[in-house]
Task: structure prediction
Amino acid sequence: MKGLIFKVVVMLLITIGISNYILYIKTGKSPFNSELITNVLNSSEFELPSTKSLPKMSKQKAYKWIDKDGTTHYSSEAPTENVEATVLEVDPQQNIIQSVEVAVKEETPASPQAQTAPIANPYNPETIHKLMNDAKGVQEKLNSRYEALEKAQ
Result:
């Protein structure tokens, strides 16, 4: 019975320690401040913000120009050179990557002549024999390359 009580007390202390550590990480302040605990628990920090509560951002200006080498430049500041720049208005609330429609492929019924060959059983003796011969060929190539490297050095 004493062992069970000891285990419960230890688990309770570990839980309290972990929760205090998480509060410290979230707030950067000591978790033993009772005012801080009530503020954190009552705050809406744990909820995702709605898009209506986000501040409206105004449109921003961007400049686009082509230099004498033919390179296209984009900047938030007007070019200092005597170059004609196009003023672009960028709305940060707008999705600037437009969607692309993907063409749907129509499946045609397969003709009896276009059937694929059945997959061979990888465990039959013929397949294993061919696999071993291929492995021996690879080993021979590696050995010949190794010998050629040894002779070169």
Observations:
- Residues 2-42 form one domain.
- Strands lie at 60-66, 72-75, 86-90.
- The mean pLDDT is 78.
